[in-house]
Design a protein that fits this description.
TIM Barrel, nine-stranded parallel sheet, two-stranded antiparallel sheet, 12 helices, 13 strands, globular
Length: 340
Amino acid sequence: MPLTKSRLSFGYLYDFRNPPQWRRPWADLYAETLEFIRWSESAGFEGAWVPEHHGAEDGYVPAPLPVLAAIAARTSRIRLGSAIALAPLYHPVRFAEECAILDILSNGRLEMAVAVGYRRREAQAYGIDFSTRGRRTDEFLEIIRRLWAGESFSYEGRHFSLKGASITPTPPRGHIPLYIGGFTDKAIERAAKFGDGYFGNEEICDLYAEKLRARGKDPAAARIRIQSLFMVIARDPERAMHELAPYYHHVNNTYGQWLAEDRASTGFADSALAPMTLETFKASGILRILTPSQAIDALNGMLAKAPVEHVMMMRPPGLPVAKMIEYADLFAKDVIPAFQ
């Protein structure tokens, strides 16, 4: 996939986890994270993204839409959205309505990413047949697109039956940018068919390009957002590894546990994330702590392979906000200017 643009924007993913070993009052955690997001806008970051999982012991955020409303109220320029929302767990009319209101509240800054999800227990808790989540999501995507465009229609599908569906108000832009996430062949096919862009991992970009070509779309015009949740910039990587590894280790182990629940169904048989000891994690290479110059080289190498428009890192659970600002400020001052 050829390089077509050199500008790259950056943001953070906020999962609002509150693990027992670093447990804080929930109101304090949410307040300080929202304040960090406000600061990140002033520092030059351009995205604030909220994911979704359910039933997590550490309180991983289960309701991204109200959090996005709070972010919209505290910011004025930064783009915001889900990354990702679990499409099978939503009714499409309600989702379309709430996103339209969020887009109005944010003055047109909302950009949503959705996917089918990979945890069977989440679907079961909502009374959804896990095996139908792909087909259910396809119907969901068709419906929300039409609603955002201002259509009034009836719909009869396998999973949704609607009569006279419409929403008021509609998004001022007539649409809301929609990214589709995932890692399997079917997920990438869905992204090429329904999405304005792809949200996921760098190694999937070539497959996404193939799917776009198969649909007569130009891969060079693709909109791609990459999650680099385990990338950190530091002047002293060795010291940073000692300081940061426990927080990212928690992230690795929880994702590893979840990915192991339904490997056969989700295509994660070869996932690098798996529960491990802290020392093994430090030596694994999963947490990439780069100097600013190393990060610029790595990001330029990524851009040479795919037209990535945005990279999102993360605020790991438990890390004090003052320490997070220290690392984020270095990124803002030493890395972001190279891609403006």
